[in-house]
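Here's my example:
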Amino acid sequence: MDMWQHLALGFGVAFTPMNLLYCLAGCLLGTLIGVLPGIGPVATIAMLLPATFALPPESALIMLAGIYYGAQYGGSTTAILVNLPGESSSVVTVIDGYQMARAGRAGPALAAAGIGSFFAGCAGTLILAAFAPPLAEMAIHFGPAEYFSLMVLGLIGAVVLASGSLLKAVGMIVLGLLLGVVGTDVNSGTVRFAFDVPELIDGIGFVAIAMGVFGYGEIIANLSRPEEEREVFSAKVQGLLPTREDFRRMTPAILRGTALGSVLGVLPGGGALLAAFAAYTVEKKTRLHPGEVPFGKGNIRGVASPESANNAGSQTSFIPLLTLGIPPNAVMALMVGAMTIHDIQPGPQVLTHNPELFWGLVASMWIGNLMLVVLNLPLIGIWIKLLSVPYRWLFPSIVLFCAIGVYTTNNNSFDVWMVGAFGLAGYVFHKLGMEPAPLLLGFILGPMMEEYLRRALLLSRGDWSVFVTRPLSAGLLAAAALLLVLVLLPAVKQTRQDAFTED
């Protein structure tokens, strides 16, 4: 079957009333949590993981995917109107978006973000549909040694592309790997690091870590910020349509942002955040046209390009997940958790064993992007009203929802205490400037790495050279080593620090 036949199958799955309803629910919820500062897609998906257990796998993944790319749309609204990024990937949108709102051009800024996001979302979906099948076919030829080397590359990529200190990122990955070995060893049946706690025999629950670090940790961090920081500057938005000059300037910016986001979304450790930073940096490097507003003062390109990039990045980050079974970022790690709940092994077999799931998810992304354009631009007034809700009224309901969600997963009160403990840990990480995303990736990939390492050594009769004698495995390890060497070079190190510095 060619791509168009596959897409026809996908649209057949996505256009069922139930899946359309869950797609709409995901997009609405994604926009909502994108609009409300402090509640990101990671925390929301972590909270909803237990609820997806009762849903069909297609509906569950369609809804969770809708939350992810919906949050990219919603985050721009907050960034432009409140000077606060509702979602981490909207950090750079704040710089020029808020200045446009102050100059009375909130409407064109929101329209530029919406149009850029829609175009990039559609382009990202087509790239996913075109490139995923060949990659999945290639992945079938992967052995245990290749998978191990690929995961090493993924973890090093997560270190390199994580914001903040390299040492802290490495520390978080190592901590994630250590947490992943708690529980019963698959090969020998030996219980490891359970410390005679019966609840830890099966290991630490993924949902407990995700909800604690990202859900409760974020809540505590947000409560420590003063309420005065949230000022809605533009209570009334008029004149949504950008001018002809705006369109002329933002069209090339949207194309550049989409291209950059599509590439960076695939990279391990990449995704929407890195894509947005990179796109803004590229725009700043391109020369200003005569009469154009400088960057940082309300340039429409500074809104259109990063918003296109983060949407394209969020769509293409599904490629390594669905074809190789490797999550490139924290949200995709949660998607692995969702697939595992439904007994689906992420990787190349998804395409052959679950074609309805794969192509239904791809088709739903295009439908979701169309829904989001309709939801975001006409309903701006509703989102603005939501911004005025004090955070002290929001957080108790989030805490309660998290606690109920994690309890219902295993009907075990120990998990609730674990969420609380990881929540405190998440707050400590926040205060120390340690990004929690690498921890989640380490936790997910750690047990898989151990399994493939042992399997490769078992097949080679304990010969460690198997990782360098197999060409593909050696190539992946060489790429990982090169990436590590490059980032340690002083010039690259400085550039990396500059890229993650907010103006």
